Amino acid sequence: MQIANPIYDVVFKYLLQNNEIAILILSTILEEEIIALELLPQETATALENRSFTVYRLDFSARIKTRDGAVKQVVIEIQKAKFAADIMRFRRYLGEQYKQGFTLEGSGKTPRAIPIISIYFLGYRLERVRVPVIKVLRNYYDAATGETIRAREEFIESLTHDSFVIQIPYLGPEYKTAAERLLAVFDQHLKVTRDEHILDIDEAVYPQEHRKVIRRLNRAITEPKIRQTMEVEDDILAELEGLERQIAGKDKTLEENAKALEENAKTLEEKGKALEEKDKALEEKDKALEENAKALEEKDKALEEKDRLIAELRKSP
Q1: Those residues with Cβ within 8 angstroms of residue 188's Cβ, 6 or more apart along the chain or in another chain
Q2: Nearest by Cα to 119 from 188, 32, 44
């Protein structure tokens, strides 16, 4: 069966607009009970060469109930390219989430700080860790004994958060967990030849409860607006990658220029040192000449004295 490639923002958002599917995906990743979901699309328009494109940052919030009864806020973002600005975007977004807070049902209208779990879908490989799904989970420890503390404090939970990092390039038919099996719908090795917008997937290898995800992605293919938006995403990504290459080229040029300037400065320093040594040698030479001149002067005086004594001797009877 052919499905729309969910690595694209527009397809990923289309997938998560279905509350039932969103609950399935999030609960599978987190291994927690989802009690409420809220999709909060915030659009960021990016203008490139008199064109504009609305990129969804995938502002998706969810309230989950953990085994100990705590309620946490989930933040989901997807990243398709490796740009330094993306990391700062994640940080800014988390800062906004911490700043605004959320209102729980039955807690009144005053926002309160709710723990956040961040989930990142990366379209590229990290440098060192080579697994599909990475859990970054916090634990409390007694600093004196090193023992684990199982109790949870609102103060700590509100200022720190757990994270899940999903490396899409490592997703595929081989899986070790339910999350890896479900997220195999992102497997980029299944792209149709000459059309990266489409994946060719075998629905039969997925359990019945996961097939609703595949069928929704299959329906996305029939949406002309989704296909068009994927093409625009490709164009913008290509332009961004071109800009990134230009920036990298300029950085390299600046680095080479800085190295050349450093070498020139070193050369000038060496020349300055050589001139300083030359000046010192000339100064010593001048001093030697001055001493020679003084010696000659004293010699002349001695000769004059000698001549005077000889003259006096000649006058003596």
Answers
A1: 5, 7, 168, 169, 171, 199
A2: 32
Task: For residues 187 and 194, give the distance between their C-alpha atoms in angstroms, rounded to a whole number.
Answer: 16
User: Is residue 217 within 8 Å of residue 4, measured between CB atoms?
Assistant: yes
Q: Please state, in angstroms and rounded to a whole number, the distance separating the CA atoms of residues 246 and 250.
A: 6
In which order are the strands placed within the sheet that holds 162-167?
33-39, 60-65, 71-79, 116-122, 162-167, 133-136
Distance CA(229)–CA(233), nearest Å, equals 6
> What does the pLDDT read at residue 96?
67
Which has more confidence, 210 or 10?
Answer: 210
Count of CA atoms in the C-beta half-sphere (13 A) of 173 = 8
**pLDDT digits over 129-141, tens only?**
999 999 998 899 9
> How does pLDDT run across 169-212, given as a tens digit for each residue?
999 888 899 999 999 999 999 999 888 899 999 999 899 999 99
- Amino acid letter at 73? Q
User: Rounded CA gap, 271 and 131, in Å?
Assistant: 55
Residue that the structure tokens 């600046």 belong to: 254
- Partners of 71 in the beta sheet? 65
Parse the chain into domains and list their residue ranges.
2-222
**Cut 0.70: pTM above it:** no
Total count of residues recorded for the chain: 317
